[in-house]
Every structure is written in C-alpha cells, then in structure tokens.
Amino acid sequence: MKQLDVLIIGGGPIGIACGIEAKKAGLTYLIIEKGCLVNSLYHYPINMQFFSTSELLELDQIPFISAENKPRRKEALEYYRRVTHLHDLSIHLFEKVIQVDKQAEGHFHVQTTKAQYAATHVVVATGFYDFPNLLHIPGEELPKVSHYYNDPHFYANMQVVVVGASNSSVDAALECYRKGAKVTMVVRDSAISSHVKYWVKPDIENRIAEGAIQVYFNSQLTAVTESEVYIQSEKESHRIPNDFVLALTGYRPDFTFLQQLGIQIEESADQFPTYNPETMETNISKLYVAGVVCGGLNTHTWFIENSRVHAQRIMQHIVKTV
Hints:
- This protein is α/β, with parallel strands linked by helices.
- The chain folds into 2 domains: about 5-130 and about 250-320, FAD/NAD(P)-binding domain (3-Layer(bba) Sandwich); about 145-245, FAD/NAD(P)-binding domain (3-Layer(bba) Sandwich).
- A hairpin with a 3-residue loop joins strand 11 (about 220-225) and strand 12 (about 230).
- The protein is elongated.
- The chain contains 8 helices and 15 strands.
C-alpha cells in the first residue's frame, strides 16, 4: 500500500483548495468525498444565490464569471467542476471514510467503504451540511417534515410551516409564498435574523408586515401531526392546519467523527475543534482541519471566502515536515 503525503477528507471547495495546494507543493495526495463533487453545494436549494460575490469564491485565482455579481448554485457547481478538471485533481467520489487510525510508525491508516490508504498527514474538510439541528418534537419523523429545502414548486397551493429565520428559512418562505403556498413562519427570536442577506431582509419583513406571510415570533414548534402543527408562543399556544413543515434550523459538524479521530472539542457553547490557527493542526500531530468545520456550532464563523487560506497554511506547514 503506497503511502500518501496527504489524504484530504471532503471534496467541497476547501477540500479542492487543499488538493490544489498539495499538488502545487509537489506532495502526493488524494481527496476522498462521500458523495458527488462539492456534495454540499449540490444539495443546496435549486435557486440559491450566494451571499458572497463570485470573486470571493474563486480558487487559485481562477476567474469565476457569473451572470450576476453574486452567483447562484448552478454556476458554482459548474465553476468548481471546471477547477477540478483544470488541475486534474486526484479525487475519489462516492467513497466514505469509515475510520482513521494513527499507527505507531507515525502515519495514518484510513479505511473507506472501498479501500484502505496510508497517509503521513490527514486533512479534515468535511463541512457541516449533512447534520441538521433536530427539533426533538413529536412528529418530526413524519414524511411531511424536512430539514432540507429544494424547489418551491413542490409546495404550490399547500399550507407550509417554515421553522427558523436564517437565510435558508427566509428564502424558502419567500419562494414558496410566490408559488402560491400559504406560508407560516415559526421564529424563536423576536425578529428576522440579522444574518439574512441584506437584499432579501426587506422583502421578507414587508411580506410579514402586509400579512402575506404569517409569523409567530418568540415561538417554538412543539408537535407535528399528519394534518396540523402545534406552536407555543410566550403567552398562548396555537394549533393550525398544515401540509408540510420545513424545519430549517441550521446544521452542525459531525462531532462524533471528529472525536473518533481524537480531535478535542472545546467545552463551550460553540464546541470548536481544537487547532492551531497558524497551521490548522489539531491536538493530534499531522491531523488538520480546514474550512467551515473549524467553526463548530458557530456556522457563521467560516465561509468559502475566508477559509480558502486554510489550504495554504496547511500545505506550507506540511512541506516543512516532509
């Protein structure tokens, strides 16, 4: 079994950036992705528009040309696919990492669903989109409840409850409303999140103000049945008819996987993985983290635009040790 200099777990934009930097540094490497290329982006809503401009999503100074200043999902998928092909990156898709063990000899043994690998260094760039924050309420397991949103046409003329007030929730509420759905939002805070895209926030606030979209602020969804939902506000409870629930309450890293690797998770509200910000090396020697996974539960900390530099930091540190 040939030993790689670097094995990169995750084929999203930052995993691709790590592969580019590893190749430029002359290191032997492999990217392993459990789904399709940039799997998380592929599962974003079909009409999603990024908060960042196209220049801030570029890798290796390769121009990202989009029809609008802020690109959409389809354009991003095309861009990262072309970047991967341009660099002829070594990447295995639809292959899941099952276990990573550090051997006495100092290298890592990596077991996947398809093969075994040996690597001197491992980079974890797995993101967080695969693990939704569950509500833990009765009825959450019903088929009508989804933690992911795709196409608004599916909800046309239906009674839809959207839980949350972040970008994904607001986009879903507005798009479903404009396809003829009767939309009710359930928001635990007293207002729409300040993190919502600045060009979208006035739209949702105006639709709420005119009564086109119903909203329960300072409220929580407490139960779901086949035909209704139960909402608890500060002073009263509500029971309303319902066809579908979009529980868009955010996502979290796979902490179980990180801990299986031996990475320490800080005992704080955000549960950051432990790493050196100058090298991105974790408490395990030669094991690194990169991208949004570094933010723990604070998923507003790292984005593509400000974590691209992680790839450079990691490979510069590895080159010094190879």
